[in-house]
Design a protein that fits this description.
Number of domains: 2
Radius of gyration: 23 Å
Bound molecules: glyoxylic acid, manganese (II) ion
Largest sheet: 9 strands, mixed
Structural class: alpha+beta
CATH architecture of the largest domain: 3-Layer(aba) Sandwich
Order of helices and strands: HHEEEHEEHHHEHEEEHEEEEHEEHEHEHE
């Protein structure tokens, strides 16, 4: 590979800004493109246009994953990169989008330099990575690798009601390509860290060694709705109290287990949600994560026991649904080492680290050698419109991605010039 080959950072930043216009949250740099909404469709259409402009072969599969492939000098399974372009409702412009647009940028850099990768090189964006509208998270890549059947995935209900299959068809992205999809030669995802570690350590590149385990549960507690003024405390069956105690409990549990255990109640809804009514029901989510599977299981069991006891003490009943459950994932050591070596070669500081967030790469790790590249997040902020990464760090991450992809491709050859 030509040692001085670099991506065009301005072109990458321009694409990030152009995509961020779609679903822009006024007065911020962030965006709201929940999966399979009109905003997601508009974002998809724009990225597909860019893929087409680069002459990539585009496939859309039956769960709406979109993959653009640059032909290689030889045939065979592609080296793949990519991420997602859906966001949480209060998202930033880099989460997911960076990995997709940096992949496009790598491809445009090769084309512009008149180079063809030995192996085909593909960039994909995967449906509903966030799982914020349709749980679980990483849904499109999970279906791609055969971890969830298509028919089951299409039946998933959105938090606002519609069925996933209907929304996918409505936005025009229920494609014809089969799932599970083609097994890539290798998979690499560039992503912002979304946490504080790289910035705090003054490091430019994270060589991601794996992803912590994720456990999402939705809990519905049902009690007795009644008048808030006339119902004596001793006679209440208040699901709101149970939900509040659970939210406090999981935080205390994380404190007790210690780092890296995390625990979050991120969504809570009371019914009927009125100032002077003891709620009839409370529905809330619990997100538990840890890098060690046994510890994660302990946290789940401790929470389940607390929930049962607390609800019984208040005379309430409980229903739970698992929204997502993924064991911790370990990435391929050779690909992680390639990330480290690429960062060193480019003169960037680099550190091995696990990922706290879930990523499409963790699904690809089930079927092919996989790793990730992290770039720092200012103040460690993400899932927030204030999410930011310095342009120089974005460029560093994209250059590392370029090198690792080309190494996995087995190098490049001069493109044939048309006679
Ligand atoms: C998904 O992006 C998650 O980590 O919640
Ligand atoms: Mn992401
Ligand atoms: Mn995210």
């Amino acid at each position: 590979m030509p040692a001085d080959l670099r991506v065009d950072a301005d072109r990458l930043l321009t694409r990030l800004a152009d995509l961020a216009v779609i679903g822009a949250i006024e007065g911020t740099d962030g965006c709201a493109r929940l999966a399979l909404t009109d905003e997601d469709r508009a974002g998809r259409d724009l990225v597909v246009t860019w893929m087409r402009d680069l002459g990539l072969e585009i496939t859309i599969d039956r769960i709406g994953n979109v993959i653009g492939t640059l032909a290689g000098a030889t045939d065979g399974p592609p080296v793949m990169c990519g991420s997602h372009i859906d966001t949480v409702r209060t998202g930033g412009r880099y989460d997911g989008n960076l990995g997709v647009l940096a992949g496009l940028e790598v491809i445009e850099t090769l084309i512009g330099a008149g180079l063809t990768p030995e192996r085909p090189l593909a960039v994909g964006f995967f449906t509903d990575e966030e799982g914020a509208r349709f749980p679980p998270d990483m849904l499109g890549s999970l279906v791609y690798v055969g971890g969830l059947g298509l028919e089951d995935a299409l039946e998933i209900e959105a938090i606002d009601g519609p069925r996933l299959g209907d929304e996918l068809a409505r936005i025009g992205y229920a494609g014809p390509a089969p799932v599970p999809g083609l097994v890539p030669h290798a998979f690499v995802e560039l992503h912002i860290e979304q946490g504080p570690v790289l910035e705090a350590e003054g490091i430019t590149i994270g060589a991601v060694t794996g992803v912590q385990g994720i456990s999402w549960t939705e809990v519905t507690v049902t009690g007795q709705s009644n008048h808030a003024g006339t119902t004596p405390i001793a006679l209440r069956r208040d699901p709101g109290l149970v939900a509040a105690r659970c939210a406090a409990f999981v935080r205390d549990l994380a404190d007790e287990i210690g780092h890296p255990q995390v625990a979050t109640v991120g969504r809570i809804e009371f019914h009927p949600n009125l100032v002077n009514v003891v709620p009839a029901s409370a529905t809330f989510t619990v997100d538990l994560r840890h890098t060690d599977e046994a510890t994660l299981q302990t946290a789940e069991a401790r929470f389940a026991e607390f929930l049962t006891t607390t609800a019984a003490a208040e005379g309430c009943t409980v229903e739970t649904t698992t929204l997502a459950r993924f064991e911790p994932v370990v990435f391929d050591d050779e690909v992680v080492a390639m990330v480290e070596a690429a960062a060193h070669d480019l003169g960037h500081s680099v550190q091995r680290m696990p990922s706290g967030a879930g990523h499409d790469a963790q699904m690809f790790a089930r079927i092919c050698p996989t790793a990730m590249v992290f770039t720092p997040s200012v103040d460690g902020i993400s899932h927030n419109p204030a999410e930011h990464t310095a342009p120089a760090d974005l460029a560093a991450g994209a250059d590392v991605l370029l090198r690792v992809l080309l190494e996995l491709c087995g190098g490049v050859v001069e493109s044939a010039v048309a006679p």
